[in-house]
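Limitations

Structures in this collection are predictions, not experimental determinations, and the ligand pose is part of the prediction. Treat each record accordingly. The example that follows, with adenosine monophosphate as the small molecule, is included so readers can see exactly what is and is not provided: the inputs are given verbatim, and the output is the predicted complex.
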Amino acid sequence: MKIIRNPAKMTAWSREQYRTGKTIGLVPTMGYFHEGHLSLMRMAGRRANLVVVSLFVNPTQFGPNEDLSAYPRDFDRDRELAAGVGVDVLFVPDVAAMYSSWEKTTVIVRDLTDHLCGADRPGHFAGVATVVTKLFNIVQPDLAVFGQKDFQQLAVIRRMCTDLNMGIEIIGHPIVREADGLAMSSRNTYLDDSLRESALSLSRGIDLARRLAGAGERSVKQLTIAIRAFINSCPETAIDYISFVNDRSLHDVTVVDEETVLALAVKIGGRVRLIDNSYVLDGS
Ligand code: AMP
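Predicted complex:
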């Protein structure tokens, strides 16, 4: 596996591969790999001849009081794990290589970013859309794989790609979970044993909603009351949002149907903000 740090060298490598007729799949990440990341890399490998993984903790998508400086990092471990699943290039630019102080361009995806995490994290999705655009332009992939764990991010990137005629196939990968249901996340490393138990409130809250909906409850108001009560009964939890949204518009709905996604953000132990989501009805 090659390590490339320089954006121009990354582009040159991709162009060289295209000359030999190879296709390239990109998996953008912020590192500290877990099985979720590795599954995305394997999927990219099944769909393209060559896999590039970018590892870049993007400062512009973190708010001033968020965990940028504390974000977990372990380059040696990440390199081993990526090589182990057959990644061809690990692209690891530093901040100075990605952003100059002259920069004046930001990619803004309207409307989709006003809801859910966008409401709590102003500027976050502009940071994401801009860095993903830069990564697409640098790596020039045929396709890119993103996790459904970041459901809103996936919707924003799909919209951006279509709206700006980027011509890159965007593939969504299902959420990879621990055996007990907790969605894998680099941020789970912040949790001690008791906070980890509290973190299960997200996946269990989703299970509760799916059970109630499966038994016939379609009222978002009633479902929200039930989930809110359940999560609040778990220690060390503070709900950021419980939202039932249409899977494409991301607008709130009042009645659950096949297109309804339940998205949750909950702070655990006062500082670890976790997200999770699922379609509410089976088979949707
Ligand atoms: P991150 O490093 O957290 O920015 O994540 C990089 C990519 O991995 C994003 O597309 C995430 O949606 C995806 N991802 C992170 N955790 C999971 C998970 N548990 N299951 C599926 N995809 C994930």
